[in-house]
Automatic annotation (TrEMBL):
This is Glycos_transf_2. One of its GO terms (molecular function) is glycosyltransferase activity. Belongs to the glycosyltransferase 2 family. The keyword Nucleotide-binding does not apply. It comes from the Bacteria. Pfam families: Glycos_transf_2. The keyword Transferase applies. Residues 3-109 form the Glycosyltransferase 2-like domain. InterPro entries: Glyco_trans_2-like, Nucleotide-diphossugar_trans. The lineage of its organism: Bacteria, Pseudomonadati, Bacteroidota, Bacteroidia, Bacteroidales. Keywords: Glycosyltransferase, Transferase.
Amino acid sequence: MTLMIAAYNEEQVVKEKMENSRQLNYPKEKLKIMWVTDGSTDRTNELLKEYPEADVLYQPERKGKTAALNRAIDFVKSPIVVFTDANTMINKGAVREIVKKFVRRKVDAWPDEKRVEAERKRTNAAGGGEGIYWKYESVT
């Protein structure tokens, strides 16, 4: 199973996201962590060098998230890919539950619900805007 993490200028969450990914309730030998950075101009790529277990695909020119993910999919060797953003922390048991659905051949794709948690130390206008967007997106 590949956990594909999309990132653009995410230096503030690299450590937290890697810790979150390491704590997933999923066999470590079956989990491949792949970061896809798209023209990041901050220290995202530099910080990711501290995590040898993570593959990092870097593109110097920003082409957008969709282009980055499409480029990265060619490097995936596992039959299952879970896509996530760098600033989205995953529930410890979520990946195991998602993979179960694929192993049992009940689904070909799994839409999930995103919940935006207001953080005490990182509350900003962007986070608030993201929360409003996802509340709207979840209703439609």
